[in-house]
């Protein structure tokens, strides 16, 4: 969206552009630029934007791009649930994209569990610091670390179950269009 297509100048602009439309307009973006990884493992797949009509504008493409992130997360979570037998009760998120309100709400809607953003959004660095602190005895144990964790914001699912199923089915259909692109 930013580097190759030039639709935005900075990553945060994608949310602003995506909120100019009510929905994805039937557009689905599959970012299989180097193939599809988990849970597909398809090196023959390539990226695609499908469902475009004359009605579609750059806001729909921006929204579809954000939604792709949530759909991909759902696919991995579904695979994890299938393999482990553990049902997801909530999803704790971190990283730069957690400040995208539209994405976080859509993520909650599509996985149908609350999505929780911590007070410290870069938990990889925090985890490294915690590991070092545990190693040198700064913290007594892992339970001492749990008291440091705090919730910043939570999004709860709002999407109707039938709409969720329809959107996910359309995403899956779009994904299949990317298969066998490379021979």
Task: Please characterize this protein's 3D structure.
The protein is mostly helical and 183 residues long. The chain is built from six helices and five strands, in the order αββαβαβααβα. The strands form two sheets. A three-stranded mixed beta sheet has the order 3-4-5. A two-stranded antiparallel ribbon has the order 1-2. Helix 2 packs across helix 3. The protein is globular.
Summarize the structure.
The chain has 183 residues and is mostly helical. Helices cover 43% and strands 9% of the residues.
Task: Name the descriptors.
mainly alpha; two-stranded antiparallel sheet; 183 residues; 5 strands; three-stranded mixed β-sheet; 6 helices
Record the SSE blueprint.
Layout: H1 13-18, E1 28-30, E2 48-50, H2 58-84, E3 91-92, H3 101-111, E4 115-118, H4 123-135, H5 142-146, E5 151-155, H6 161-176
Parallel strand pairs: 3-4
Antiparallel strand pairs: 1-2, 4-5
